[in-house]
Amino acid sequence: MTPKQAEYLNTVPPSAKGILERAFAKSSSRTNALKGKCLQCTNYDRQEVRDCTVELCPLHAYRPFQPKSPAGAAKTTSGAAKTQGAAAAPADWDEDLDGPWTPESEDNEDESDDDL
User: Fold this and answer.
1) What is the largest CA-CA distance in the chain?
2) Residue-level pLDDT at 66
3) Sequence-separated (6 or more) residues with CB below 8 Å from residue 116
4) How many CB atoms lie within 10 A of CB 116?
5) Which residue of 6, 51, 88, 103 is 20 to 30 Å from 12, comparing CA positions?
6) C-alpha closest to that of 37 among 49, 50, 55, 53
7) Buried (b) or exposed (e) across 3-30, using 16+ Cβ within 10 A?
8) What whole-number distance in Å separates Cα of residue 5 and Cα of residue 80?
């Protein structure tokens, strides 16, 4: 654990401290890291992790604290969650992109808008 991570742990609620300590450990599992990240994202609220609606998050389908599904039940997030990121982008997503953003390109955009 780094000194910054140890300092950060002093700001974490006691209910999440153990998970984050394990996540910061060099021998940590991916599961502990995932739990720690999801808890950080939801301000350490397990119910918020369970009810997360951020389907564009790459971790959404793998988030912890989900109820166990009954034996034989099909998982509902497996295929759908993997494709939602691509389907969520609007059709004209890159229509106006002429390369990477720079401060100069922003100035040029303002001038070109006058032509409309």
Assistant:
1) 63
2) 80
3) none
4) 4
5) 51
6) 49
7) eeeeeeeeebeeebeebbbbbbeeeeee
8) 35
CA distance 100 to 66: 39
Give the C-alpha separation, 66 to 53, whole Å. Answer: 13
> Which residues are CB-neighbours of 55 under 8 A, at least 6 positions away?
81, 84, 88
Rounded-to-integer distance, Cα 40 and Cα 49, Å: 10
Query: Mean pLDDT in each 10-residue stretch from start to end of the chain (116 residues)?
Result: 92 90 86 89 90 90 80 48 40 42 48 46
Provide the pLDDT for residue 56.
Answer: 93
Range list of H helices, the chain: 3-9, 14-24, 30-41, 46-50, 78-88, 103-113
What pLDDT is stored for residue 11 in this prediction?
92
Q: pLDDT value at position 68?
A: 76
What pLDDT score does 8 carry?
92
